[in-house]
Amino acid sequence: MSNKWMEAIYTFTESVKEGILANDMTLVAEALQEFTGEELAGMTVEDINVPPVLEQPVKKEKNPEDFTMPLSDDKEPTKQRLTKRKSLDLTERKNEFTDDGTIVVDEVGSELIDDTVAKPVKRTRKPAGGSMNITCHVCGKVELIHPSLNKEHYRCDSCCKG
Q1: Which strand (E) or helix (H) includes residue 10?
Q2: Is-contact 153 137, C-beta < 8 A?
Q3: Which of 18-32, 45-59, 111-125 is modeled with the greatest confidence?
Q4: Dist CA 44 CA 14 (whole Å)
Q5: Rg, the chain, Cα only
């Protein structure tokens, strides 16, 4: 950036700081007008400090085809997102379910499945033995490695590090 821009930014920030510390909005407005050429019309410190008055939403009849969530009357935040009803009191409820064993599988073809015939499968794979000797194809050094690391062009640790 050029020195003129740096100087203009510095004077603008200093003027704004001075206006804020003095609680004088006219100094801030003058600094903005000088820097950007824009004018803050009708803004005073009182206008900024007064919070805007929000209108209360008017409740409307809900259209049955409208799928939006209704506005809530409750201003208190809740942990539940969709419902604000109180939780059910489960201490006085009784479990009236009794299992009489009449529920069976009625799927088509379920009578054709016989689970008693399946035998366990014997493992034919043998676990790898101990370590094996392998020669590095770069330097010729012999190392003991696990058989799972064996490949056609093996490199030792020192050759991999470079």
Answers
A1: helix 3-21
A2: yes
A3: 18-32
A4: 20
A5: 40
- List the one residue out of 47, 5, 11 whose CA is nearest residue 26: 47
Q: Report H helices in 22-156.
A: 25-36, 45-49
- Distance between CA 153 and CA 133 in Å, rounded? 14
Q: Which two tokens stand for residue 38?
A: 């824009």
C-alpha 12/C-alpha 34 separation (Å) is: 8
CA 61 to chain centre: 36
Q: What span, in angstroms and rounded, lies between the C-alpha atoms of 44 and 50? A: 10
Type and span of the H or E element at 160: helix 157-161
Q: Looking at the whole model, is its pTM more than 0.70? A: no
